Amino acid sequence: MGQNANTTETYDVSTIREDIQDILRDISPMDFVFMSNAKTRNVSNTFFETAERSLASAVSNNQVAEGEASPANDAQSLPVRIGNYTEISDKVVEVSDTSQKVSGVANAQTIAEGIATATKELKRDMETSLFASKAGNAGSANAGGARVTAGLPTWLRTNVSRATGGANPTLSGTTTGFPNAVATDAISGNMRAISQALLQTVISSCWTNGATPKILSVGPVQKQAVSGFAGNASKTREQANTDGIIMAGMGIFISDFGEISIIPSRFQRTRDAFVLDPEHMEVAYLSTLTQKPLARTGHSERRLLSVEFGSYVYEKAHGVIADLNA
């Protein structure tokens, strides 16, 4: 049916007020496996070190004769120095004076909101960097190159499971130094599926070397694969029959050496699954996250957010199942 002449419709009117909700919606993830579980320490140099020692292997033939006159000296279990570099991450926020004055949705255009957003982004960058496969680097003078802190995968050499063609990362020295070369990734044709057997082997290796692993950190693909382990499948059917609930996920893996919390991470590589002992992982801060005003550039205000940090991982306390299918 038509309409009468000169009927005013919304399509004809240019003065209708806009309707926009005065709230900012953001589901960007802020859950951090490494930073939330690691210890923190303050350091006073761009290269920081930790003394590590391993006791001599236990033996069953340590018997001596009664009254032995001249017992020989035993080799001492001396510590070694293991280090890493700090790296600087920053965000710069600049907002015009006019933006500060106008009325905007949830004040998103203000310097305060810009700083809040940049702070969250900086923390996400830190977590991604701590999980990244990258070697430590001293950088160079005159802004020739940035310092780089070695990421978690570059520490792990002992409790490892790698596919054919994969190889361990290296230290700058034989038994001392810093992680100076990343692990070699197996080619895609040699990658494999995560399995209960692979996980149990790495957990056992960690425990044998003195660790008490508590966390399995995995990306979303591997998290779903772990939930399909055989032990969970039978429980799923049982729960579905008794409670009407389908238990498709698994949050705890009870190994022969204790409970392991299975925590999905959005900031690590899909091809890696990390078995972690939080007691022996640290985020080292030369400078914690700070905010500083920068010189004004005309009619705008600038702020610098920065943090200088590095990772330390006692590598024998952790493990990795590498080269997993994505």
**Strand order of the biggest β-sheet:** 5-14-11-8-10-9
Total beta strand runs: 14
Would you identify the regions where 5 or more consecutive residues have pLDDT less than 50?
Answer: none
Total count of domains: 1
For the record, give the distance between the C-alpha atoms at the N and C termini, rounded to a whole number. Answer: 58 Å
Mean pLDDT: 89
The secondary-structure class comes to: alpha+beta
Q: What would you report as the Rg, rounded to the nearest angstrom?
A: 27 Å
Characterize the overall form.
Answer: extended
Write up what this structure looks like.
By secondary structure, the chain is of the alpha+beta class. It has one domain: phage-related protein like fold (Alpha-Beta Complex). The protein is built from 6 helices and 14 strands. The protein has helices at residues 33-37, 97-101, 111-131, 196-208, 220-227, 230-243; strands at residues 39-42, 47-52, 80-85, 87-96, 159-161, 170-171, 179-181, 215-218, 252-255, 258-264, 273-276, 281-294, 300-313, 319-321. 27% of the residues are buried.
Strand and helix map with partners:
Elements: H1 33-37, E1 39-42, E2 47-52, E3 80-85, E4 87-96, H2 97-101, H3 111-131, E5 159-161, E6 170-171, E7 179-181, H4 196-208, E8 215-218, H5 220-227, H6 230-243, E9 252-255, E10 258-264, E11 273-276, E12 281-294, E13 300-313, E14 319-321
Task: Please give a quick description of this structure.
The chain contains six helices and 14 strands. With 326 residues, the chain is of the alpha+beta class.
Key features?
single chain, 326 residues, alpha+beta, phage-related protein like fold
